[in-house]
Write a structure and sequence with these properties.
This protein has 124 residues and is mainly alpha-helical. The protein is built from four helices and no strands. α1 runs antiparallel to α2 and α2 runs parallel beside α4.
C-alpha cells in the first residue's frame, strides 16, 4: 500500500516568515532619537531588548555580551526610571555589537572585496 499526500511522513522543515525586523529597526531609531533629546528612560531600552531578543538565535538575556553588560551596569527594576546618558549610550553600543555578532547588521559576502562589493556590476 503506497502512502498518499495525507498519510506520508513529512521529512522537511517548514520555516514561517515573521516580520520582526521592521519593528526592530523602528525601535532602534526610536532609541537613537530618545538619546538625542536626552529622554533616557529604562522602558525604551527594555522595549528594544524584547525586539532584539526575537531576532537572536538564543534569548538576548543569555548572550554573553548582554550578561556582562547587565551585570556590570544594571538598569534597575524601575522601568519608568531614567538612566544616565552615558549608560543609555553604553547599552545602545552593546545592542549594536550583538546585532553585528549575529549578522543583523554589518554582514557582507565574505567572497567579495568589501571595498568593491557595492559597485560590483558582474562580468560584462
Amino acid at each position: 500500500m503506497s502512502e498518499d499526500f495525507f498519510t506520508a511522513k513529512k521529512e522537511h522543515k517548514t520555516y514561517l516568515y515573521k516580520d520582526t525586523i521592521t519593528g526592530l529597526n523602528s525601535e532602534y531609531l526610536f532609541l537613537l532619537n530618545a538619546y538625542t533629546i536626552g529622554d533616557t528612560r529604562v522602558v525604551y531600552l527594555r522595549r528594544f531588548e524584547a525586539w532584539l531578543s526575537m531576532n537572536c538565535p538564543q534569548p538576548l538575556w543569555s548572550m554573553s555580551r548582554y550578561v556582562y553588560a547587565s551585570s556590570r551596569y544594571p538598569l534597575g527594576r524601575n522601568v519608568n526610571g531614567y538612566v544616565s546618558r552615558g549608560k543609555f549610550l553604553y547599552y545602545i553600543a552593546v545592542y549594536e555589537l550583538i546585532m553585528r555578532d549575529i549578522g543583523l547588521i554589518g554582514h557582507r559576502d565574505d567572497e567579495k572585496d568589501p571595498e568593491t562589493a557595492v559597485f560590483d556590476m558582474g562580468e560584462q
